[in-house]
UniProtKB/TrEMBL annotation:
GO aspect biological process, one term: transmembrane transport
Taxonomy of the source species: Bacteria, Pseudomonadati, Pseudomonadota, Alphaproteobacteria, Rhodobacterales
Residue ranges annotated for the ABC transmembrane type-1 domain, each copy included: 69-278
Topology of this chain in the membrane: Multi-pass membrane protein
Family indicated by similarity: Belongs to the binding-protein-dependent transport system permease family.
Chain ranges passing through the membrane: 12-37, 65-94, 106-123, 155-178, 211-238, 258-282
Keywords: Cell membrane, Membrane, Transmembrane, Transmembrane helix, Transport
Pfam families tied to this protein: BPD_transp_1
Protein name from the UniProt record: Sorbitol ABC transporter membrane protein /mannitol ABC transporter membrane protein
Principal location: membrane
Record-linked SUPFAM superfamilies: MetI-like
């Protein structure tokens, strides 16, 4: 058992790292909070240290806010749907004995380690390019006109790009859950004549419920801040402007630091509300 002396020594050793982490997080957050109550427009030479909640009111009442929020929710819901369904199917497939199983698993997990910017560039130029993309050649080979995904189906295109990145994460978590399933239950159900769909519905899926809720919680927290894929592909056009991208436009493109800071605080509050809500769901699921 750890003694009081060893516990004190451990606290002292981790104190510098905790201090740096807190400073790294708190200083930008406090500065953002400060600027959110100010009228700060550097290019116009405007700085009023206190204007109350005007920035918050302007950001929340703008027509762009509601559309950006709806786009964000649709994007998160679409990505989660693809990663959860695809992750379950891939986990079940990878759990089956096959030749080169280890190599196949590495290939499936590999996209998760690709930087979002690189992933978006690859999809934009290699697959979605209307002139030289692989999908364009496929459409031409089938006798159809090339389809411009990024301008005709921009939201779906970004959902596919981000889902491709996060699918390995969901697969890895769900594969671990599948491998922890008691094979005797499945064998008993199979011997009793239960079809494969019934075994999946009544045995496998309930067993995966905890892993699915954890995947939803972790992915949602990160997906609410999608930015790089939008910046590289559509630049926020064609109805792909999320809440995070709206904050970026207010700060850098409009050079309204106060209004953008207020949007950033609102985005942080919304993300925390959603995270707390999901954590309650996860907690109830884990207690069952």
């Amino acid at each position: 058992m750890a003694t009081a002396h060893s516990k004190s020594a451990a606290r002292i050793m981790i104190a510098p790292a905790v201090f740096v982490l807190l400073v790294w997080m708190l200083i930008p957050l406090l500065m953002t909070l400060y600027f959110s109550f100010a009228d700060y427009r550097p290019l116009r030479g405007t700085f009023d240290a206190w204007i109350g909640f005007d920035n918050y009111v302007r950001f929340l009442t703008s027509s762009s806010f509601m559309s950006a929020l709806i786009t964000t929710l649709w994007m998160v819901a679409g990505i989660l749907s693809i990663t959860i369904i695809g992750g379950v199917l891939l986990a079940l497939l990878l759990d089956q004995p096959m030749y080169g199983q280890g190599f196949v698993r590495i290939l499936v997990i590999a996209p998760f380690f690709v930087m979002p910017t690189v992933s978006a560039l690859v999809w934009k130029n290699m697959f979605f390019n209307v002139d030289n993309g692989l999908f364009s050649y496929l459409f031409k080979g089938l006798g159809f006109q090339p389809y411009d995904f990024l301008s005709q189906s921009p939201l779906l295109s970004i959902i596919v790009i981000v889902a491709w990145q996060w699918l390995p994460f969901a697969t890895l978590i769900l594969l671990t859950a599948v491998q922890s399933l008691d094979s005797e239950q499945l064998e008993a159900a199979e011997m009793d004549g239960a079809p494969a769909l019934s075994r999946f519905r009544f045995i496998i899926l309930p067993h995966l419920s905890r892993a699915i809720t954890v995947v939803i919680l972790i992915q949602t927290i990160f997906l609410l801040s999608i930015f790089a894929e939008i910046f590289v592909t559509t630049n926020g056009a064609f109805g792909t402007r999320t809440l995070t991208y709206l904050v970026y436009q207010r700060v850098l493109e409009s050079q309204n630091v106060g209004l953008g800071s207020a949007g950033g605080i609102i985005a942080v509050i919304l993300a925390n509300v959603i995270a707390i809500f999901l954590m309650r769901i996860v907690g109830k699921n884990l207690d069952n």
